Amino acid sequence: MATTRIDLDGRPVKPITICMIGAGGFIGSHLCEKLMSETPHRVLALDVYNDKIKHLLEPESLPWATRIQFHRLNIKHDSRLEGLIKMADLTINLAAICTPADYNTRPLDTIYSNFIDALPVVKYCSENNRRLIHFSTCEVYGKTIQSFLPKDSPLRQDPAYYVLKEDTSPCIFGSIEKQRWSYACAKQLIERLIYAEGAENGLEFTIVRPFNWIGPRMDFIPGIDGPSEGVPRVLACFSNNLLRREPLKLVDGGKSQRTFVYIKDAIEAVLLMIENPDRANGHIFNVGNPNNEVTVRQLAEMMTKVYTKVSGEPYLESPTIDVSSKEFYGEGYDDSDKRIPDMTIINKQLGWNPKTSLWDLLESTLTYQHRTYAEAIKKAMVKPTAS
Ligand SMILES: NC(=O)c1ccc[n+]([C@@H]2O[C@H](COP(=O)([O-])OP(=O)(O)OC[C@H]3O[C@@H](n4cnc5c(N)ncnc54)[C@H](O)[C@@H]3O)[C@@H](O)[C@H]2O)c1
Ligand SMILES: O=c1ccn([C@@H]2O[C@H](COP(=O)(O)OP(=O)(O)O[C@H]3OC[C@@H](O)[C@H](O)[C@H]3O)[C@@H](O)[C@H]2O)c(=O)[nH]1
């Protein structure tokens, strides 16, 4: 571990204490890992679960044992929250319900989790003059302007109608009965509240808009380390299909487009925000990889090829199957058509650029999935079902 870290302006970085809410999740686990292995910072890790960071908490002989402390708590109702925020120099809020299968089926939980439950965090940071890095989402952009243009319009080729820019793009959601947008709308309102706290009360804040960060430990594999009927995000859905040798399900033909960024690249961006407050405060940052764009169908095809390579198993005969969104997600689902992040602001403020290609990040992620789950899946699949 480097003892003295230097910020982007050549100044030494002082070790700080970070209150990380949602530290036990996918992004939190990678951020904790990075902070423990490469920095001298201390982490108060708050979450309801800690399975994904167990390897950082035990045994006590780990070199960073004195720098990480886990607090099992639910921020909905725990009086320890303000005290923990006050103990830290910086709070990072990752806690959220953030799987699309929940947005239209559990809209109330989704809105409470992404707006109401985040309110005390913002308030305690503002009242106690603590810096806040809040995790929002690329979903706040909703649909692109391009998606409303006539199919044959030449304007469709113009990036001005689809590249998503923090300071100029509008937020375009569907109608209220399309409950898919309950998440994006709650995230948008908490962004506006944080921004207003900055403008009116001087809160030092940074808002992060992740664009499909993916990698090891994302979500769960249904029936193995999560509920059998659960629907995780696409990486885990497709991994589950590949591990079980069943066709990958393409929702509404898999025509939606996404850009995927490797979690380890994205974590570098968050570390720059943590260690360069003067450059990060007051900003909203897109964090994604504009070069890794695919349709969901192309993602399925690429994952199938990569999985065949890393697992040594034969190629699936019918690798994909089409399903309707109603069948897959239920009533009220809707989708973002295309998500390309503009990188101007993060480039200018933090000099950050993603490095890993989609093929490479899938290769390391699917190697992890195969190593972690293949045996457990085999055992689960041969078990006789209870009659
Ligand atoms: N992964 C992505 O690509 C992505 C994209 C856009 C936005 N985000 C945002 O980033 C953040 C983290 O996402 P993630 O992918 O790590 O999700 P995740 O579900 O893996 O992690 C969220 C963590 O928050 C915890 N949590 C939720 N409610 C809590 C509560 N009331 N009290 C305590 N802990 C609670 C959960 O237990 C979980 O461990 C979320 O705010 C999400 O909306 C992520
Ligand atoms: O098995 C599946 C799962 C998903 N999909 C499709 O794959 C695409 C991506 O789905 P994901 O589950 O990864 O979720 P989305 O990209 O739509 O939203 C995510 O974006 C950013 C974050 O805020 C959240 O983590 C989540 O809302 C969607 O078009 C979805 O319909 C499939 O075709 N098949």
Short descriptors:
387 residues; alpha/beta; seven-stranded parallel β-sheet; two-stranded antiparallel ribbon; 14 helices; 17 strands; globular; binds nicotinamide-adenine-dinucleotide; binds uridine-5'-diphosphate-xylopyranose; NAD-dependent epimerase/dehydratase domain-containing protein; Lipid_A_modif_metabolic_enz
| Percent helix range | 25-40%
> How many whole angstroms does the radius of gyration measure?
21 Å
What's the mean pLDDT score?
97
Poorly predicted residue ranges: none
Please tally the helical runs, counting DSSP H or I stretches of 4 or more residues.
Answer: 14
Structural class: alpha/beta
Write up what this structure looks like:
It is a single chain. This protein has 387 residues and is an alpha/beta fold. The protein has 14 helices and 17 strands. The protein has a 7-stranded parallel β-sheet with strand order 5-4-3-6-7-9-14, with helices on both faces. Strands 1-2 form a two-stranded antiparallel sheet. Strand 1 (5-6) and strand 2 (12-13) form a beta hairpin. Helix 3 (80-87) crosses helix 6 and helix 5 runs parallel beside helix 7 (182-201). It is globular. It starts with a strand and ends in a 5-residue tail after the last helix. The model has no long low-confidence stretch (mean pLDDT 97). The structure holds nicotinamide-adenine-dinucleotide (NAD) and uridine-5'-diphosphate-xylopyranose (UDX). Uridine-5'-diphosphate-xylopyranose binds next to helix 8 and strand 11. Residues 18-288 form the NAD-dependent epimerase/dehydratase domain. This is NAD-dependent epimerase/dehydratase domain-containing protein. InterPro entries: Arna-like_SDR_e, Epimerase_deHydtase, Lipid_A_modif_metabolic_enz, NAD(P)-bd_dom_sf. It holds the Pfam family Epimerase. Keywords: NAD.
